[in-house]
From TrEMBL:
One matching Pfam family: Glycos_transf_1
Annotated signal sequence range: none
BP GO terms, sorted: bacillithiol biosynthetic process
Record domain Glycosyl transferase family: where: 196-349
Name of this chain's protein: N-acetyl-alpha-D-glucosaminyl L-malate synthase BshA
Domain Glycosyltransferase subfamily 4-like N-terminal positions: 11-179
Length: 376
């Protein structure tokens, strides 16, 4: 199949999911075309089945906002015609499904019918919760897609509750590539630069938006390190980072916290972590938690959104109500305080992650692609 993938190419779960999906489809022999404004961060290796087409938005001073959707829909039309692409898979209703629908209409005028699969990742829904003026565009984009998928049951339920949806929504969970090899030879030496052998390493990875509740990450760590020797690795960048640094300084733990910024070495970082913290306000899935579990790292998270579908309470880690720093700290200590318990949780985390192996999830997308193509 010739498939175009449209996504946000930045350090975010949806971009990672779209990129890994495209790469795995390419490995299976499909021809995959990424169409976006910059090369997705994890699209380092190009293979002959993988193409990347950049969407350029010419700057024009008359426009207060440069029209990305227009540029994207034109690019989609051009690439579909040039490469005879058979299916569009867009990640996020706005603006991608919105632009994809316009491309479909333009192509139809030229006698080309192309199906569009839209995957919902959550932020569309959160955004509409905060800014209802996007609601008509999101509803329209979802209803005009040929197939709609959602990364969790929780996100599907939220979407059906908040919008007037006439389309079926298929739940396809996010996935992880389990066969990936991490260069373990680097692990002990890197770890020793971060923490002593007797110290536990706690980790949080995100885009440091408010929804991630970074202060809760720090407060949990603050309590943990009062009981056991520990270090905290904070990976990623975003609007809440500076406040996080100030809070660490205020609590007197700055010397125990390492701010890494954005990194492409997530697996390496996770390979010397003992516990992952994800106390988010809302999370449609929590890909970062799954990435941690796949590296054998148990997770302390909230029970919001799709997190209970990924992190199993008392097995791969623990779930708590949003903001319950007290319980999250107690649970973290429960996991970290002795080696036997920690090893058991690490093994459980990896075992749970295996349910989300890309090998099991990819056929679900391929089946829906066939169904979408069958529509025309
Ligand atoms: O979490 C973010 O802020 C980034 C956002 C994105 O667009 O990558 O993540 C969303 O999609 C991920 C992939 O499906 C999910 O794992 C995240 O839970 C979801 N974020 C939210 O729902 C807040």
């Amino acid at each position: 199949m010739k498939i175009a993938i449209v996504c946000y190419p930045t350090f975010g779960g949806s971009g990672v999911v779209a990129t890994e999906l495209g790469l795995e489809l390419a490995r299976k022999g499909h021809e995959v075309h990424f169409i976006t404004y910059s090369q997705p961060v994890r699209l380092a290796v190009l293979d002959p089945n993988v193409h990347y087409h950049q969407v350029n938005v010419p700057e024009y001073p008359l426009f207060h906002y440069q029209p990305y959707e227009l540029a994207l829909s034109s690019k989609l039309v051009d690439m579909v015609k040039l490469y005879k692409i058979e299916l569009l898979h867009v990640h996020y209703a706005i603006p991608h499904a919105y632009a994809g629908y316009m491309a479909k209409q333009m192509l139809r005028d030229e006698g080309i019918d192309i199906p569009m699969v839209t995957t919902l990742h959550g932020t569309d829904i959160t955004l509409v919760g905060n800014h209802p003026f996007y609601k008509p565009a999101v509803t329209f984009s979802i209803n005009k897609s040929d197939i709609v998928t959602s990364v969790s049951q929780s996100l599907k339920d939220d979407t059906l509750r908040m919008f007037n949806i006439t389309n079926e929504i298929y739940v396809i969970p996010n996935f992880i590539e389990l066969d990936k090899q991490v260069d373990k030879s680097k692990t002990p030496c890197y770890r020793s630069r971060i923490a002593n052998d007797h110290e536990r390493v706690l980790t949080h990875i995100s885009n440091f938006r408010k929804v991630k509740r970074i202060p809760d990450v720090i407060k949990v760590f603050h309590r943990v390190q009062q009981q056991i020797p520990a270090k905290l690795m904070l990976v990623g960048d975003g609007p809440e980072k500076e406040k996080a640094e100030l809070l660490c300084a205020e609590l007197g733990i700055l010397d125990k916290v390492i701010f890494f910024g954005n990194s492409n070495e997530i697996d390496q970082i996770l390979s010397y972590s003992d516990l992952f913290l994800l106390p988010s306000e809302s999370e449609s899935f929590g890909l970062a938690a799954l990435e941690a579990m796949a590296m054998g790292v148990p997770v302390i998270s909230t029970n919001s959104g799709g997190l209970p579908e990924v992190n199993f309470d008392g097995i791969s880690g623990y779930l708590s109500n949003v903001g319950d720093v007290e319980q999250m700290s107690a649970n973290a200590l429960k996991i970290l305080s002795d080696d036997v318990t920690l090893q058991q949780f690490k093994a459980n985390a990896l075992e749970t992650a295996k349910k989300f192996d890309i090998k099991n999830i990819l056929p679900m997308y391929e089946e829906l692609y066939q169904k979408a193509i069958g529509v025309y």
